[in-house]
Amino acid sequence: MAEKNKKDSKHVVLVVLIVALVVLLGVSAFLAWQYQQKKTEVKEIVEMMEFEKEQLADEYEDFAVQFDGYQTTEIHNDSLVALLTQEQQRVQDLLEELRITKATNARRIAELKKELATVREVMVSYVQQIDSLDRANKQLVQENKEVKQQYQVVVREAKQLEKERTQLAEVVSRASMLEISRFEMIPLNKRDRKTTIYNQILKLQFDYTIGRNVTSKPGMKMLYLRITRPDGEVMQKNINDVFKFENKEIAYSVSKEFEYAGEEISGSLYWLVEEILQTGIYNADFFVDGELIGSFPFEIKK
Question: Which fold has domain 180-300?
Answer without folding.
Answer: Immunoglobulin-like (2.60.40)
